[in-house]
Amino acid sequence: MGVPQVVIVGRPNVGKSSLFNWLTGKRLAVVDDRSGVTRDRMTFLLNAGERYFELVDTGGMGVVDEDDLTAHIEAQIEKAIDSAALILFVVDTRTGPTPLDAEVARRLRKVQAPVLLVANKTDAMSLDVHTNEFHKLGQPAMLPVSVHQNRGKEELLGMIIERLPADLGDAPPPDAVMKLAIVGRRNTGKSTFTNTLAQAERMIVSEVAGTTRDSVDVRFELDGKAFIAIDTPGVKRTKSLANDMEFYSLHRAQRSIRRADVVLIFFDCAQPLSRVDKQLTDYVAENYKPCVFVVNKWDLYQGKVSAEDWVKYLHETFRSMKYVPIAFITGQTGKNVKALLNHAQMLYKQSTARISTGELNRLLRWALEKNEPPIYKNRRPKIFYAAQVGAQPPTIVLFCSEPAAISADYKRYLLTTFRDHLPFSEVPIKLYLRPAHEGDAGKELRKERRRLRDDAIEAGRTEAGEAYADEEGFADDDFEDGKFETDDFDDGDWTADDAGGELVGDDAPPADPSQPPTTNPFDAEWRGLDDDEE
Questions:
Q1: Which residues contact 307 (CB under 8 A, 6 or more apart)?
Q2: What is the dihedral of CA 88, 94, 95, 98, to 10 degrees?
Q3: What number of helices (H) and strands (E) belong to the chain?
Q4: Quick check: pTM over 0.85?
């Protein structure tokens, strides 16, 4: 069964967004003293009393929007009310009933869903008597609460659970397989793209710059899998932020990047790249997030400039991110959107991939033989071994004689080598250098082999106490007296078995045995499609 929606409604400035953040326990909605801050519907899945429901925040009913978006905001409120299983009608105890409260009550009388009147800003019990004035609004069920004083939260959740439909909310919806953050500067088509994914008018779309103010999670499905698209406010230069609301919008966009699995960075094909684009891309890179450069509105510019020219333009602008795939789409019509989502899933798989210590060190040895580290202070630094210690992002630690002696250029060379020959071709790799002595390598690798042997014993692939050669070819005699030899990782011949899979076609090993095979299953270059993708 589905998850019921509990919708928060009321006139402007009664604390609806504050109530939303209070119940969710997170700072999700932008809260400001100005009226009309909330425009789009915000949702959050809550679990209370072994029941699940989706809490929905809406804009203020009767608001006069400064950007002439009142009709759009009202349409979003109506859609939320139509899908509600329960409505929380929020009023302000300190101001008492107003004509606009009465108008909201009149509109809610036509709604079939039950309504719970929530008298917010009732900061003390002495103010409870003033809530009696709201009975004239015609809502029998009422609860005084105070977000500021943290008063009445458990009672409110209890009354919500009591009023939920009995046949809904017993089980959570399926977990999303991936979170996509949709970021970019203003008016690049992010909200239009989000509506295309949701196949509904989920976000307000207009020509007004800065229409979206909150980062909004939108759940959608593709090929039977659930995803979450995070539509974010358009980014401005920090020194151009006009007020607190724009400041909070920027920080919520940055937080959305940090919690996303893959980031889609949107560009308007009719606009040149700006400093804002560079700052935003730098922030994505600093957080080591897999990303796609998305050139949107391609139907408006196709034929005026080639895709190859745009690819060259992006590569020249973001020189350190040439590994990032580039997509050309039309968000409004859905052209190439499915291909983009499929490739985003591929990036997510790359970011979660893990490789064995043996495979990594065989490649490291080849890279060192091909190009040794440059001499530093009359000595050539040594890199003893490497290990992948994490994923999302792939994190590799190099143990070397002197980390400071490894130059930035040589680090880039190693990262390029790893990206070319490991399943991380289009995602950022985090690289650490740690000091170590040559004898330490054998100790660390023996720990890795023992871990693999314990896993094999637990899985029943080998017996405890018997000689063990693991899947990477480490055997009991590979380590002698705590010493480690690089020959332990290479028998001189590269085979498909060394890569852990069959190599065919363009992925087959080169004829020169001194060259490593391409073991990367994701290395097919993808630059978006100009034809419609079904």
A1: 295, 328, 527, 528, 530
A2: 30
A3: 14, 15
A4: no
